[in-house]
Amino acid sequence: MIHQFPIGRNLRAGTAFGNALLQILAACFLAVFTMPAKADLNGPGALAPTVDDISNLKVVRGKILRIKLEASTGSPAPMKFVISKGSLKHGTLSEPEIPNSEKKHIASVDYTPALEGPNAVETFTYLVRQTIRVPNRDEPLELSSSPATVTIQVEAAYPELVANEVIEFGDVYVGSTVERLWTVSNKGGAPFRQTIKVPAGFTIAGLAEKNLLEIPPQQTKRLQLIYHPTVIGRLQEKLDLPGHRGASTETLVYATGVAPFHGAPSSLRLEWVPESESRIGSLEVTSAMDKAIDIAVSAPDLLKLPAIISLDKRGAQAFEIEIPAAKYKDVVEGSIEMSFETFKLSIPVLAESIPAYLDAVGDTIDRTTIE
Q: How far is CA 121 from the centre of its chain?
């Protein structure tokens, strides 16, 4: 037997029973068809990933800037970084997409600015996407962040120099020449062209006219720094290469000028020798150089020294000096002046007046006058 209920009559609009029954049916319908969506929103990774703007980045033309991109997400699922390069005007990016990065929320991209051009501001955008699965849903859920902007300050290229920090010559004889290698590299993206101030006593082989140094970008120049000492003593000099925005590249130079020859004694005193009735002394001149040299000599004629003393490699020569009493009796004062190249050596000379003595008839011999 089939029973029929007057549902249609009881569901007529406006009846209390009909309205109540419609509300119950609507609630059941919403419960059936909206629960999966609510589960998606509350399930793992249901929140969309987010990315932030990046600024305060700087790069010089000729360099590569590595940029770290980061995202926040509530899901452990891998994410893909998607970069929009359409707005780039001054350089290029290495990757348009970075899938499955090793660290799921971090990726890196390299920005290479064009080598030539002025200071500029460069921007591009990026976002991240995730594909996740949630309970009670057959199809995967696609999540995407809003785009973020990366701003880069691009600076015009300039030369960046690298050179020896220190050059040491050690002891160098006055009158000789010693060379050292001075290496200067331009690691920047612009040519270097400057006049170099060369310290006194030095020359640089390999420079253009008027000590002009020119080095193209990414090139190295090997120069010979030549030291030709003119004085004795330790010196410290500096080779200064002006750089970008007041910076400079410095090379400290140390050298010591030493005497190429020596004279002994440093002060010559001629002693009275009664047996020979003369004032006698000795002088020795020794070369310190590894080559033959000629030493110019200027001395009182009375000392009878040669005008040129020629010495072999590290050679020496001794001289006996004698002033007979019969020729000169008074005090002898003066100096022996010797020179080689720019080095000069002065040795004072002193010969006391000879003691008074008697001649054969017992008269005191008078002293003569220095002429």
A: 28
Amino acid letter for position 295: I
Distance in angstroms (rounded) separating the CA atoms of residues 326 and 186: 76
Helices (H), the chain: 7-10, 16-42
pLDDT one-digit tens code per residue, 249-307: 999 999 999 999 999 999 999 998 888 888 999 999 999 998 999 999 999 888 899 99
* Assigned token pair, 74: 């509530």
What is the β-pairing status of strands 202-205 and 278-287?
unpaired
Q: Measured between alpha carbons, how far is 173 from 291 in angstroms, rounded to an integer?
A: 11
Q: Are 260 and 173 in contact (CB under 8 A)?
A: yes
Q: Which two tokens stand for residue 7?
A: 């549902």
Measured CA to CA, the distance from residue 75 to residue 205 in angstroms comes to 66
Q: Distance between CA atoms of 218 and 203, rounded to whole angstroms? A: 25
What are the residues facing 121 on neighbouring strands?
A: 153
> Could you tell me if residue 281 is left (phi over 0), alpha (psi between -120 and 50 degrees) or otherwise beta?
beta
The residue whose two tokens read 């331009």 is 186
- Indicate if the pLDDT at residue 330 is higher than 50: yes
Question: How far apart, in whole angstroms, are the C-alpha atoms of residue 17 and residue 9?
Answer: 10
Q: Pseudo-torsion of CA 130, 135, 136, 137, nearest 10°?
A: 10
Partners of residue 297 on adjacent β-strands = 338
d(CA 11, CA 19): 7
- Short-list 140, 164, 142, 294, CA closest to 222: 164
Phi then psi for 192, rounded to 5 degrees? -105, 130
User: Is residue 315 within 8 Å of residue 261, measured between CB atoms?
Assistant: no
* Residues 307-325 pLDDT 10s: 999 999 999 999 999 988 7
Q: Is 33 helix (H, G, I), strand (E, B) or coil?
A: helix
Cα 277 to Cα 328: distance, rounded to the nearest angstrom: 11
Residues in Cβ contact with 353 at an 8 Å cutoff, skipping those fewer than 6 apart: 329, 330, 331, 367
